[in-house]
Design brief:
By secondary structure, the protein is α+β, with helices and mostly antiparallel strands. It has helices spanning 11-16, 19-38, 86-100; strands at 2-8, 42-47, 55-57, 63-65, 75-82, 104-109. It has 3 helices and 6 strands.
């Protein structure tokens, strides 16, 4: 089973964190991702640019500055993991949430989905 884990946070929230927290979080994420890779559980990870660099494209190719979910927090980092169960995906998300002091979104990646 594949699951997508998403970390949502605003730029200002990261800037408000202490330099020590940022260093610890960076070290934790490097170790966490290496552990997943070594266990063959990590399909891929993406670190996204800041929301101030985001644009959205609408019908007719209209372009606006900003991220799509204006009322929520933008995605900052995304992991796709291949695990045996939803419980393992939740376990990984709980570890991230505890270390990063935030909520982590967990969604199953549906195999071969060709429709929304």
């Amino acid at each position: 089973m594949r699951y997508l884990l998403s970390w949502h946070i605003r730029e200002v929230e990261l800037q408000d964190r202490s330099p020590e927290w940022r260093d610890e979080a960076t070290a934790f994420l490097a170790e966490f991702e290496n552990e997943l890779f070594m266990a063959s559980e990590l399909d891929w990870v993406e670190v996204l640019g800041s929301e101030s660099q985001a644009i959205v494209v609408g019908p007719g190719a209209e372009i606006r500055d900003g991220f799509y979910n204006q009322e929520g927090k933008p995605s900052a980092r995304i992991w796709v993991v291949r695990v045996d169960s939803k419980e393992r995906a939740v376990e990984l998300a709980a570890r991230l949430a505890g270390e990063l002091d935030t909520w982590i979104e967990v969604r199953e990646c549906l195999p071969g989905a060709q429709r929304p």
